[in-house]
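Students often ask why we bother predicting the structure of a whole assembly rather than each chain alone. The short answer is interfaces. A chain on its own may look different once its partners are present, and contacts between molecules only exist in the joint model. In this exercise we take two input lines together and write out one structure for the complete complex. Read the inputs first and try to guess which parts will touch.
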Amino acid sequence: MAEKFIYMDHAATTPVKKEVLEAMLPYFTEHYGNASSVYSIGRESKKAIEEARDRVAKAIGAQSKEIFFTGSGTEADNWAIKGIAYANKTKGNHIITTSIEHHAVLHACQYLESDGFEVTYLPVNENGLVTPEQVSAAIKPNTILITIMFANNEIGTIQPIAEIGRIAREKGVYFHTDAVQAVGNIAINVAEMNIDLLSLSSHKFYGPKGVGALYIRKGVKITSFLHGGAQERGRRASTENVAGIVGLGKAIELATGKLNEYNAKLLALRERTIEEVMKNIPFVKLNGDRHQRLPGNVNFSFEFIEGESLLLMLDMKGIAASSGSACTSGSLDPSHVLLAIGLPHEIAHGSLRLSFGEDNTNEDIDYLMEVLPMIVGRLREMSPLYETVKRGNKNV
Amino acid sequence: MYSEKVMDHFMNPRNVGEIEDADGVGQVGNAKCGDIMKMYLKIDNNVIVDAKFKTFGCGAAVATSSMATELVVGKTVEEALKITNKAVAEALDGLPPAKMHCSNLAEEAINAAIEDYKRRNGLLDESNDCTACGRRCDDVHHHDFDEDEE
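Now the answer. The structure tokens for the assembled complex follow.
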């Protein structure tokens, strides 16, 4: 119904690039062979999968045989965490993570707790950062896994992954990172960063949905997650999603090929948005670290208003965004990430995440700055909380 | 996920604002839960002649506030007290199940504003107290139907 459509939710998902789709299409039709078959069209599928594997490995500084395709980032996270836990339970039962992980990690950890494992959820500071010292101090003789996200999906905070990797390697503890938000946005080298396992998801960097990958460093002891055929060297049974894997491979190659250019573009949009929002809208807070954050991520809390209302009004103006308010989180509480950085509930309810991508332009920010202050103002005029502020008593 | 009517009342809410010389004012909900509804009533000869609201909350909270003010105007105090959350939701062509608590808020706000009016006029009937007004976020104020019923 809106005339415009401006997509500012690239952390949720991205459109599939034309080149990616074109690379995928033949694998739905003429190249439909099962990669496990011996005849020619089967071998073609197998070859396409291996090319995609090479591309993923190259993008993150791994070896091809260390890349295992999965059905999603969530599957990669679950496999990494449960697979390491069960394969190493004779060594110990302690896992270290943070309180701001994606639910794919948090709920996998909670599941393991119900099965006798012990999990330490490290708190984060007000910007959403954990320190290498915190990680180091949490390691115990029975620690078998450290799982800490590369970059946060809501507030964009980038963790000191290389430092954590070094500590984990020194202490001989496996280190997994959920890099779903980071791959395609930040340069990653698993070897240099001492990462043992890394999860990624294709649809966050202009690839198709329904395909991800888990990097498992050679020599890491992990159980298989799906049992069945011999696909993925017997570690992840299932007939391969050939077209999806080809799409992932193409997308990651394109994304990492011009990472610097993409980064600079997003950074400019991010910086301008932060500056203008902070300048033009009163009672606003930037969530997440000012600098250690994803280039395309901004997250604000607007006091006295509620996030879902804000999203609905932005949608009516043609802007697609997201919020950590309870009304959009699917629970009665606002986002666990916003609560973990110490926001009071009422401030967390008024959050707005904008995540920029390839299709966004400076004109989009012009338009955003035209409508956002107006919408925030309108919702505040309607808010009984703001009434009190206007009367000069901010302590509601 | 919302009906067209909900979206209409959200985008073009009726009766937003305050009544300076209101005869009854009621505020329910709390900021921690993410919704607060404040209702102002002008009551003349036991009939509600004007209603205004201010709401902090989601789309459904704003729409139910707007609808509740429309429903109460022209009604006697007794009739207004009979307006249920279900009636508010139905007048909006329904609400998603997860949003039904917002319609509870509207009913509570009407009750709270009328209670204030009665208190000011020495009409308060203690037995009619609304006990739901200190609710927690997950408390749903049931009067005569269950949330699950839709």
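Check your guess against this: Confidence is low (pLDDT under 50) at residues 139-150 of chain B.
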